[in-house]
Amino acid sequence: MRDFTQAELESLFGPASHAYRAAIGVSTDSRTALPGNLFVCLQGDAFDGHNFVAQALEKGVSAIIASEQKRIALQPVCDQSSVPFYFVSDTLRALQHLAEMARSSLKCKVLAVAGSNGKTSTKDMLFTGASAVRQNVHATAGNLNNHIGLPLTLTNIPSSAGLVILELGMNHKGELAELSKIARPDHAIVTSIAEEHAEFFENIEEIAEAELEVAAGMNGGILLYHAQSAGQEVARRIAESHGLSLKIFSAESPSVDASGIHFTFRGNRLTNSNYLNLVMAENLTGALELLAAAGFTGEELTAAAVAAHPGAARRFEVFRRVSGGREILLIDDSYNANQASFEAGISSLRAVLPHGRLALFAGEMAELGHKSDEAHAQVGIAAARAGYTMLFACGRREAGLMASAYMKHKPDGKVVRGEKPAELLLAFSADDYDGILVKGSRRARMDIVSDEIKRTGFMGRSYV
Questions:
Q1: 3-90 maps to which CATH number?
Q2: Exposure winner among 102, 201, 213, 452, fewest CB in 10 A?
Q3: CA pair distance 234, 240, nearest whole angstrom
Q4: What DSSP line would sit under 282-349, residue for residue?
């Protein structure tokens, strides 16, 4: 974690109530604060960090950043403590100032990942692949990719880092520009453009412009953009206006089978056995291009391509079970979903098992606005056209839309509907299928389904 000296903090926030040596890293949560942390009191609609200053002090934090409006209320604890308090007008902006200071101290390359789908998967590929060939690689933890998560990430990365990979997320116009100006990436990738946060955007071009705000904080460098994504003219315009080199990327001759994904990169045929999704061949190609922009050699890129693996659960995670002499595949892709990722998952499992009996457990998709009905119907159509034997549809109205569209295009198919995930499993037997895909937005809680199926003997791969 990064050290913040008293001189640095006073340069940002003025004099403190008491002197101290240094703060090590930053925390905004008293439950996870570590001894030596700088504790920033954030406020939101449903929380106020100022209410937990006492708990943070008990954890041994080195300093407190609090709102000027809370000075009177906190004065008694401030007077009784030897820990310095900094009172500021806006604690969130203070956190972001700390992140900007931390970013300025980095001497390594900083890479940014944006896009509608595949951000976290690509970030994980970059981190695990780069870590296989170089030391001191740091990346966004989990999906801490917003106006709070990004500053927390930067303020907890040591100045001695050898490579930094940052995931930047957005749900409305202007958000990514603010994050990019904090991150100031040397190179960046937009993994894909697809319908997302439809309540805030009128069309796909507006989404492309919002994702391309990743360029706002760049000063030169390479901007990677997926060849199958809409908005390439927008990308060219934005890259030119920021003095960036735009590179359109796409996987060359990708294929997938039970042994993994295969594609050609710069003349070399590569195989990664940690993924069974054709979309991951696209993401991995983009990740390798981004590492190449950061100066990785051909040998390092090949090693990174083989070593890259998922860093988080439930993103097209593969589980296997042998039953009656045959292998059954379970794909847990229940972390999140939109129409494009749903269709990609459906087609990917079919590509792996071209003649297998397949079942789809489909939960509702969130944040689609007025396009929700059509998107859910398209999921049912995709499952029908891919020849899935069974559709298990979860939800209320959305489940009906998926089921109706599926049966219209596959009259010999079968459907089970349930308002709650557990209801889908009442008459389910994994032995009836060769492959099972479980997917939905996080609020659909399709992880309940995948976890119950795993308990019947499915085993996954453990990554070290």
A1: 3.40.1390.10
A2: 452
A3: 10
A4: HHHHHHHHHHHHTT--HHHHHHHHHH---SSTTSSEEEEEEETTEEEEEEEE-S---HHHHHHHHHHH
- DSSP at 174: T
Cα Rg of the chain (Å, integer): 24
Query: How far are the Cα atoms of 84, 180, 192, 231, 232 from residue 241, in angstroms, in the given order?
Result: 45, 15, 21, 15, 14
Q: Is the distance from CB of 356 to CB of 386 less than 8 angstroms? A: no
Beta bridge partners of 438: 332, 361
Question: What does each C-alpha distance from 65 to 1, 28, 150, 323, 433 come to in angstroms?
Answer: 18, 10, 18, 58, 56
Looking at every residue in the chain, the average pLDDT score rounds to 94
pTM for the full predicted model: 0.85
CA distance 298 to 292: 8
Cα 393 from Cα 190, distance rounded (Å)? 31
User: How is domain 106-307 classified at the CATH fold level?
Assistant: UDP-N-acetylmuramoyl-L-alanine:D-glutamate ligase (3.40.1190)
DSSP-assigned states of every residue in 66-105 = EEGGGHHHHHHHHHH-SS-EEEES-HHHHHHHHHHHHHHH
**pLDDT tens digits, 186-209:** 999 999 997 655 556 678 889 999
- Which residues face 187 on adjacent strands? 111
Polymer length of the chain:
464
Domains of the chain by residue range: 3-90, 106-307, 317-460
Distance CA 85, CA 62 (A): 9
Residue type, 431: D
β-bridge mates for residue 393, sequence order: 362, 417
Q: Are 215 and 228 in contact (CB under 8 A)?
A: no
Q: How far is CA 41 from CA 30, 65, 330, 353, in A?
A: 9, 6, 43, 52
Distances (CA, A) of 20 to 6, 11, 23: 7, 15, 8
DSSP letter, residue 262: E
Tally of CB atoms within 10 A around 71: 13
Tens digits of per-residue pLDDT, 305-335?
A: 999 998 878 888 899 999 889 999 999 999 8
Q: Domain 317-460: which topology?
A: Protein-Tyrosine Phosphatase; Chain A (3.90.190)
